[in-house]
Amino acid sequence: MTVQVLGYEVDAINSVQFCTHTQYKHITGQILKSQELADLFSGLKKNELLGEYSHLLTGYIGDKGFLREAVAVAKQLKANNPNLKYVCDPVMGDDGRFYVDEALLPIYQDEVLSVADIVVPNQFEMECLTGMKISTVADAVKAMRALHEKGPSTVVLSSRDLGDHENLVMLASERQGDGSYTTFQQLIPKVPTSFTGTGDLFAALLLAWLEKAPLQEACQRVIATMQHVLWRTLKEAKEEAGEGNEPTVRHLELRVIQSLTDIQQPSMSVPSPSKVAI
Fold it and tell me: Which residues are catalytic?
């Protein structure tokens, strides 16, 4: 929906069909398999629609075969449109733990990264993809370079905790035509609770804004939008929970629909990015 609000026609395929997101206590539903994706893609191909796509965005995938089939889809789409951009959010886990089968990791490392143009991991995912521990900005930049070497021209570390009580840090790196890299960081004011779905929202916003603005401005607009959505969500969650009560997972469902104006025209209420020289 977020990408549609910013002007794109979207054909959405669910990699999973769950009753709720994964932070609820009881999760029921289905995980799609490779053949189900192949069947859908076959129909698009037979209808000669493959050349219609400008972007491919992948996020949460819960099955090894489905992930491999997604790589095959990306390759076929690029064969039909060499200008297509594949944005990969390698959703595997966070805060030091996996919430997908760890067997997906080598597929991301060995097959997905070589096809992706833009990759948007969080800190845990970047450490897993590179095998590098990230403790400093310099560590993060080295890890981003390692991902560049595997294929992606743009790498965005969606958030990193430097131990600052007030801010997280986003880092982004872009490979230039001469082989050099432009890298910058941006502070992200912390919102004092945990949400589910922020990575999905971040990746969708980045895809859309990168077509409208250079990487630094696009990232600033993404962070500004995220701040609007998260603070609105927290405010309304506290109101729903009632005075003195902690908001539950249900209360903290992201207020995306209520934030349509901010998604379309985010006010730039966040710090400007600063270049990182390493």
Answer: 200
